[in-house]
Design goal:
By secondary structure, the protein is an alpha/beta fold. It is 35% helix and 23% strand. The two termini are 33 Å apart. Bound molecules: ribulose-5-phosphate.
Length: 228
Amino acid sequence: MPSIESGALSPPPSPLILTQDELKKIAAYKAVESVQSGMVLGLGTGSTAKHAVDRIAELLHQGKLKNIIGIPTSKKTHQQAVSLGIPLSDLDSHPVVDLAIDGADEVDSNLNLVKGRGGSLLREKMIESACKKFIVIVDESKLVAHVGASGAMPVEVVPFCWKFTQNRLQSLFDYAGMCCEIEKDVGDLKTASDAILRLAGVVEHGMFLDMATTVIVAGELGITIKNK
Ligand code: 5RP
């Protein structure tokens, strides 16, 4: 069994092999160490963020955290937080978020992300662009050389004539992929990002550029913390 007990974290004793979910839990618990009483928290979405929300609720119920206000990044996280008794609010009432903790689908060495393959990127981007600190929690399988260079890029579009928008996006995604492969820097990702957002019918995309302040990576050899 992994060395995770009551939130205590320690590197796995070799040669123990941890599952991907156990690594996600280690990263999540480490991130929750940054939560302080009184904070307004962005509550992320996905199997990694779920561990963080569970841990926050556990600390609240133990009295080790007080006066936390959560802002969920999806309906699913909202339901989880309600079921765990975490007090909730929204950006209208709390436009400044102290800390958000969320997973990601891809993370590069500049802490750029691809998010949204779990289907909630718009709320995530709204909340995580309003936070003072954004901790991303991943297992090491999420590390990539260049975000957007491979795998699906989530894009939220309006339902009206969505196939038309999809066709127009296709050429832009070819362009975005080419930027990642050839230039590999944030400037070109931003160019690709801007081009996608200018397309009528697009609501938001899954490139989270220059937003994460910290990435916590859990791997077989322990935890790595990367700060911006
Ligand atoms: C949801 C997301 C998730 O954070 C991302 O898909 C990672 O999910 P998981 O922690 O389950 O691997 O962006 O839209």
